[in-house]
Amino acid sequence: MRYFRIFLLHFQDVFEQRGRSLVWLLLTFVGPLVMILFWRGASAIPDWSMQQITSYYFLIIILGAFIMTHIEEEIGRKDIHEGQLTMFLLKPFSYIGMKFFYALPNRLIQGIFGVLFFLILFLLFPNMFSLTESPLLLLLGVFVVVGGFFIAFLFKMIVGLFAFWMTEARGLFDVINAFLMIFAGYLMPLSLFPSWLANVTYLLPFSYMLYFPVLAFEGKLKIEELLHVLGMQALWIGLLFFLYKIVWNAGIKKYSAVGQ
Amino acid sequence: MRNIKKYFKIYRMLIKLNFATMLAYRANFYSSFGANLAWSLFIITSMLLLTSKAPNVFGWTRDELLLLAGMYNVFISVFFILFSHNFNEFSENIHYGKLDAVLMKPIDSQFIMTCLLIGYGSAIRLIVGLLFVSYMLSQMHITLSFLTIGGFIVLFILSLIILYSFWFFVMTLTLWFTNLENLVNLLYEINHITRFPPEMYKGASIFLFITLFPLTLVIISPAKVLLQKILLGDIIWPIICSMMLFVVSRQFWKFALRYYTSASS
């Protein structure tokens, strides 16, 4: 209940700044829309129709808004470098729990904007999209999205904590974002990569953040494949949480803050 | 003329001061260096991946598209070195009332707001871009004459004016919407539009094409000089667009300043 109150407080904060939220969402539109236009100029795309490619990038926008948190910047700059972490340490809540309920409202607001945008487009151009019609696949797809959010959240938490060892961490965050653009599926469907590279990406956590949730909603995965994805997500959540604990315990020993 | 000399003198001083700042805050420099290296490699890798399944897009061959990617790195690095750090601080300067101090100085406010900071960290991106463009030109067996290089430099400068004016126009909006500091992030994303063939936007919608037209010229016009495919329109449009956008953005800034109310109590 106390965490829910934190969520509500932060929700009010985010809702007050909905203009900024809208700009963040617009920002996520540009890349995928450019990619749709790019593929329109290609003569043929192996195993993908133009309708499927269009749906893919629109789902990247919407599910990306729900899943991909950018919490690392706040952790690195405000909490660790500016010393706000002290405030969290003095409270009777776990740091990761607080951060989780700080990240959630942002994702919900942006996700809602994304869904509204998608619904408008879907009503205007219903033939442009290809989505699964099976309720079971949709339900499993929702679980895959939740799994993707947890992986993204834990991964970004770990990345943010690297600021304990760095005077300036923005460069690292940029490197990570460039990496995610390719390996999380923002750039193009991972199945279109050369097969050796695609196989490598399926082993990494990044594909389970966004790429597989998108495929799940497009109906490109069978039930057994979805269950395999859920299993891999559970594995990565466990591994990343373990890694988070190690990095947190090592980092907090290095932390120092100066008061006034 | 005296005025121009004065600004050159100030800018020379700024180059030295920014260099000293870079040496003093080395962690910032290394961080920016790493980020620029990562993004320059991302631009090239992403085009390699995209063209592995689409070797011909809107009549542009794989080599030509890769050349565009290299050109984008060269162009955007120069823009980042000269201007983008200033735009990063733009909305903060307005939001916290720092613009007061800018307006009090006997120097043009646009100059201070957009030319004060120099991002040396982006130099690595320029190097990667130049190396990749040279490699692609040799792969395509293209040799450059002095005339080609001269034409390239002129169009490159016009393109810089176009992008600068576009950014300046959009960021001026923060005089009214001071909390929209993430507008600059949107502009960074919009930059990516320039690294693809303009035919993409023309085919989608004529409205979209007209809206984005100045931005589509930014990389394409200088790149067409290198590819020796330049047409008269590729020279005239950048001249018209750069002059128009520069004048409009400057007038818009002057108009917007009338609504600046500062942030002090």
Q: Overview of this structure, please?
A:
The complex is a heterodimer of chains A (260) and B (265). Chain A has 260 residues and is mostly helical. Chain A has helices spanning 2-16, 18-40, 50-67, 71-81, 85-89, 95-124, 135-161, 170-183, 195-203, 206-218, 223-252. In chain A, helix 3 (50-67) crosses helix 10 (206-218) and helix 7 (135-161) runs parallel beside helix 11. The relative contact order of chain A is 0.14. By secondary structure, chain B is an all-alpha fold. Helix content of chain B is 77%, strand content 2%.
Defining key terms:
A: 260 residues, B: 265 residues, mainly alpha, 2 strands
Concise overview:
By secondary structure, chain A is an all-alpha fold. Chain A contains 11 helices and no strands.
Q: How many strands in all of chain A?
A: 0
Q: How is the largest sheet of chain B built, in terms of strand order? A: 1-2
Instruction: Give the integer mean of the pLDDT values of chain A.
Output: 88
What coarse outline of chain A follows from CA principal-axis ratios?
Answer: globular
Mean pLDDT of chain B: 90
The helical percent of chain B reads over 70%
| Strand content bin of chain B | under 5%
* Chain pair forming the biggest interface: A-B, 37 and 43 residues
Could you spell the SSE succession of chain A in H and E letters? Answer: HHHHHHHHHHH
Q: Count of helices of chain A?
A: 11
Which assembly state applies to the chains in this document?
heterodimer
What global shape of chain B is seen?
A: globular
- The gyration radius over C-alpha positions of chain B equals 19 Å
Q: SS-based structural class of chain A?
A: mainly alpha
What percentage of the residues of chain A does DSSP assign to strands (E)? Answer: under 5%
The level of helicity of chain A is: over 70%
Distance between the termini of chain A: 34 Å
> What profile does the largest beta sheet of chain A have?
none
Total beta strand runs of chain B:
2
Tally of DSSP helical segments of chain B = 11
